[in-house]
Amino acid sequence: MNLFEDSNEWTEKLDPILSKYKDRKHPLDYHNLYQLMVMVVLSAQDSDANINKIAPALFKVFPNMESLSVSNVGALIPHISKVRNFGTKANWLIEIAQTIQKDENIPLTMDGLTALKGIGRKSTNVIMREANVPVKGIIADLHVIRVAPRIGLIPESKDGVKVEKQLMQVLPKEIWEEIGMAISFLGREICRPQPKCGECPVNGICEYHKTFKSEHPQ
After folding, report:
1. Known SMART domains for this protein (predicted)?
2. Distance from chain centroid for Cα 33
3. Over the stretch 130-139, which tens digit does the pLDDT of each residue have?
4. CATH number for 109
5. Which CATH number fits the domain that encloses residue 209?
6. N or C: which end of the chain has fewer CB within 10 A?
7. Integer angstrom CA distances of residue 127 from 15, 107, 119, 149, 154
8. What is the reported pTM?
9. Which of 126, 46, 116, 35 is nearest to 81 (CA)?
10. 63-110: per-residue pLDDT in tens?
11. pLDDT digits 0-9 by tens, 4-54
């Protein structure tokens, strides 16, 4: 594998998933930017499905950043107690709300978002993509971390920041906004830990599939 393979070649090779998943909304069922930010923070090391389940009741009590900013950790915890690491996340969310104060103050820049507690580059890339502002990186969630090396885009790594930087090296900036979520959706639906290679729209260029076929000839 050549890490610096021509980026335009990769754009062409990945077009089937870029077309399949283009503009698809993130699986978190949010209804505004405030909800998205809160749900992204809560979803770290947890499932989107679980966050979607607890969100309606949470947002009835805390409908906006202002209501969260005048609350406290003790009042928030009962509404997120089914979320993994809820204590830490409650502290993060109260600190974020007290910093931002109002929904209209939510920053939509890489520096502005990553300066907030509990929001790293992955979360920032999700928020910026969903808010339809120019992205500065590539979403590298757990699905992307698993799938991108399988395809042959980058070497294997468990470090999301390293994965993102390597993807930014090999892929042209024009597709950064969509390719992270496209690979993520592929990982959620087809390229599972036990992949369904026969259903994959990019199995023709996938290193994992080529290796599997050579080891299991029909």
Report:
1. ENDO3c (SM00478), FES (SM00525)
2. 15
3. 999 999 999 9
4. 1.10.340.30
5. 1.10.1670.10
6. C
7. 23, 10, 10, 24, 24
8. 0.91
9. 46
10. 999 999 999 999 999 999 999 999 999 999 999 999 999 999 999 999
11. 456 679 999 999 999 999 989 999 999 999 999 999 999 999 999 999 999
**Cα–Cα nearest to 37, from 86, 106, 139:** 106
Residue 199 lies in a domain: yes
Classify residue 102 by its DSSP letter. S
Structure tokens at 72: 């406290």
Residue type, 60: K
Q: What is the pLDDT of residues 187-199, one digit of tens each?
A: 999 999 999 999 9
CB 23 within 8 A of CB 188: no
Q: What residue type is 68 in one-letter code? A: L
- Total Cβ atoms within 10 A of residue 159: 11
Q: Which value, in Å, is the radius of gyration of the alpha carbons in the chain?
A: 19
One domain for residues 113 and 49: yes
